[in-house]
Amino acid sequence: MERHFDQDLQQLKERILYMGSLAETMIHIAIKALVDRRKDLMKDVYRQEEEVNKLQIEVDERSLQMIALHQPAASDLRFITGAMKINADLERIADQAVNICETTEYLLQEPPLKPLIDVPRMAQIASKMLKDALDSFVNKDENMARSVLVRDDQVDELKDQVFRELLTYMISDPATIKRAIDLILIARNLERIADHATNIAEDVVFVVAGKDIRHHIEAAETTT
Amino acid sequence: METMLESQPETPMTPESTPPPTPAAVETSHGIEAIKINTWFGTNHVLKDISMKIKPRQVTAIIGPSGCGKSTFIRCLNRMHEVVPGARMTGEILLDGANIFELDPVLLRRRVGMVFQKAQPFPTMSIFDNVAAGLRLNGMTNHGQLAAIVEKSLKRAALWEEVKDSLDKPGTGLSGGQQQRLCIARALAVSPAILLMDEPCSALDPIATAKIEELILDLKKNYTIVTVTHNMQQAARVSDETAFFLLGDLIEFGNTKQIFTNPRDKRTEDYITGRFG
Predict the structure, then answer these.
(1) Model confidence over A77-106: pLDDT tens digits?
(2) The CATH classification of domain B29-272, taken from the options 3.30.565.10, 3.30.70.20, 3.40.50.2000, 3.40.50.300
(3) I want to staple A31 with a disulfide (CB 3.0 to 4.6 A). Which of A83, A123, A185, B266 is the partner?
(4) What are the chain A neighbours of B276 within 8 Å (beta carbons)?
């Protein structure tokens, strides 16, 4: 039986997906601005952040209204609470993209420190993690959501690698310290984006399968 | 009146389905267990092989669409099903490990009380007499004793403060919610172990409903409660375990939190999310 409530759920899902696509674009533009040294691109990121902020409030309002009016249960309840949590993570991802732009503005005032290899690589993995987490949300695909979780370690390793490399620059030439720290901050922003994508994937597993896998509870339960 | 009752099932039971009363079962006092219950109204097979272990001092909610057999099930638990003409049942029901069909039905119903959908105070009786009725039927005549139990029962039913100055007024003069609590007090007066409630709030407004729900949560400290409800949120709020019945089958029975957040059976999911149809 098709319910009117299903239309509300569908609209909520569409808002989340739209927010997700904005967040993905923001990461892409922020890194392109950094790598191609194009300050002009960044105004789009700032504009989109305002849109994401408005969407965050809208998604919460819609979710609260649906809970209050329909008292959802089971998969409907998991979907709405999941949407609210994913909503918060997407907004934080958009903030991280803005932080990358703000740091990039300082970096672009100086000559390039080094060719950027690992930072764009981190951005690529983190973006793909976000995309797959959102796809798994749309397709109710638990396996795809779980595939996101394992990639978080790759991003963490790259961040450590970036940090070690930039440390050598800073030790050999103190004049590079400011730029090196800025790049470390950007690597840190990307690492946080991957963490938020991981949170989203964990929420998707809960929405789809009703299993709470945060903080490796699942693994702990199966070993005890 | 044609009353048929078969204490033996038609189909042979496996040893697993009929565990003998064990010391452990007796320890968990005032639990009630249904084993392979089948019921019929004439040729209409209403309940099919229902086996459920209802835990003591917990609230168990029975949910399901109209006609799924939930009221019939709880009416089996105090042998009210057998008084319906043309009704019969097979299977076993164990109260603290003892087969209820070997007990005197009157004594059984004293231990397994029932509250109905529509509050039915005895129309000619005062509030006091309504609560005292069961005790008097059981031979208690000492007024002091009666008064003490009436007060205790009305307090347990969260009605005492509202009626203590009008105990001699007719029970039917109370509001719907008060009448329902009066019926709960009447059921509590004879010290039941188990309280069956058949849609106890369906005729009440939200405030009276909230009072009954609070009462159910208080009462479960001392009583085992089985409630039938159409109100899914009520089942979710007050019960510890929930059973979902559909067309006479027990589809799913488990922890209420699990049933309402992550039901295992798609039919349960469809029912509680309103997708049924």
Answers:
(1) 999 999 999 999 999 999 999 999 999 999
(2) 3.40.50.300
(3) A123
(4) 1
